[in-house]
Amino acid sequence: MISTRTLGLARTIRWSGKDFLMLAIFSGIIAALYHFKIINFVLPWLPVSVIATAVAFYVGFKNNQSYDRLWEARKIWGGIVNDSRSWGMMVDGFISNFFTSQEVPEQEILQIKKRLIYRHIAWMYAHRGQLLIPTEWEHISSQNGKVARAAERYQNNHGIGTINSEEQSRIDLQNFLPQGEYERMINYKNTATQIINEQNRDLSELRAWGLIDDFRHMELANLLKSFYTLQGKNERIKKYPLPRQYANMSRYFVRIFIILLPFSMIPTLMETSEWGLWFSVPITALVAWVYWVMEAVGDFSENPFQGMANDIPMLSLCRVIEIDLREMLGEKELPPAVKSKNGVLM
User: Fold this and answer.
1) Which band of pLDDT confidence, cut at 50, 70 and 90, is reported for residue 147?
2) Dist CA 306 CA 312 (whole Å)
3) What is the pTM of this model?
4) How far apart (Å, rounded) are the C-alpha atoms in residues 308 and 291?
5) How far apart are CA 2 and CA 245, in angstroms?
6) Nearest to residue 314, comparing CAs of 80, 23, 24?
7) I want to staple 88 with a disulfide (CB 3.0 to 4.6 A). Which of 127, 248, 290, 325 is the partner?
């Protein structure tokens, strides 16, 4: 998530400056061809404007759908935050000696609460890690080598590459799962799913011991069901892309418009005054750049879990929940909140 108030001129130039330069070079070549009378035909503005309108509607639709995917992902993680706090509250309040015939030492009850809460923290980090595994349609996995290399560079400088080794060590599942359980969980294909199932098994044992009654057991189990629901919603966004016919066709339409634009705009501007030649190149490049950036914004926003600056700040949200839950256990030595780096909060 970009955390600065504005993108800033420097970042905008780094992100799309090369595109503007290439568009300016292309416009300059067409202007030179007109200036030296190598070509003299003028494309009427009417068909170009019709294409421009159609492209604007199409790109606008794509951007709306991309934003919907991004905002839905943020709402899902908001649900994880809320239900996680409820989990910590219920674990802390429900598990006690009130229903058992044989009193369990308070220190053992505290260890049970810690095990359930720490296992939940492990689930969050495992779920986050699984969401960051690249899919074949994301930029980092693009079949186009240039796009993939650019995405990797962007990811390293403004994405998950900004997370240092110390931060990585804090989110290791070994910190939250018992050793034997950790070795078993990481061998599953879907570790996050099996961690929730392990929570359910633990609750069943607590019910058998009498440390929770049926009602409290049911309430805690319903929360586990909610976590499965939220995990499934995130996996749906991750594993089902914005349909390719919408994601890719808009790019082709934008390119067609950019190719046709100079043959209509440049000769028209050249006729306005003796300075028209010099104005035509930057103005044409600017119009083309606006359409190109609109397309790129939607393209980079459609996948909210690809480890880039536009992502949902999952690590930050996981850390907020971790701090809240560990404070419920009465712990004082807590990890620091995740801070933004290079204007990006991950």
Assistant:
1) low
2) 9
3) 0.89
4) 22
5) 28
6) 80
7) 325
